[in-house]
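Technical note accompanying the year-one report. For the benefit of new consortium partners, we illustrate the data format agreed upon in the data management plan: each record pairs a sequence with a C-alpha cell string. No post-processing was applied to the example shown here.
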Amino acid sequence: MVDNRPGADGNLGVNIVAKSPADGYTLGFATNGPLAVNVTLFSKMPYDPATDLTPISHLAFGPNILAVNPSLGVKDLDGLIRLFKANPGKYVISSGGNGTTQHLAVEMLKKAAHVEITHVPYEGGGPALIDIVGNQVPITFCSVPACMPHICAASLIPLAVTSPQRSPALRDVPTIAEKGFPG
C-alpha cells in the first residue's frame, strides 16, 4: 500500500516512517530534504534522520536544469550571468522551496558566479513551474522530468544541468561545471 504524505519538505511522511515499528513492513522513499538538508532548516525536527532511520538503497539521481522563459532573451548560461552582472539584484529565480536541491543550486550559483539575484521559494516545484511557463518569474531551477515537456514545447529554454555529466535527456545542454562553475 502506498501512503503519500507530502508536506514540510518531506518531514511529515518521513516522520511517519521514523515512528513506525522497525518490523520490516514500513518503507519510506524520500529525497535529500528530509534526510539531509532539513536538519539545517528546521529548528525542531520530529525525528533524527541519523538514528531514527535505516537507509536501504540509493534509488535514483536526478539533476536539475537551470531554465529560463524565452521572453528573457537569454540563450545560454554565459548570457544569463552577463545579464545578472549588468543588473545586480534586478532578477528573481524560483525554486520548489527553501532547502530543496533547486534552492541549493540557486545559492551555489550566486556564490560561484558572484551575482546578486533574489531567490523566490515556492510551495513545490509544480507552482514554480507554472509561474515560469506563465512568465511570472523568468528563471528557475527545476527537475529534468518536470521541465522536459516545457522544453520540448519551447516554452522553456534549458541553459545548464547541475549534474557532473550532461543529462542523457538533454545531450546538447552543458553542465554548469562545463560553463566554468565546478562543484
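Partners are asked to follow this layout when depositing records. Helices lie at 11-19, 32-41, 77-86, 101-113, 125-133, 144-152.
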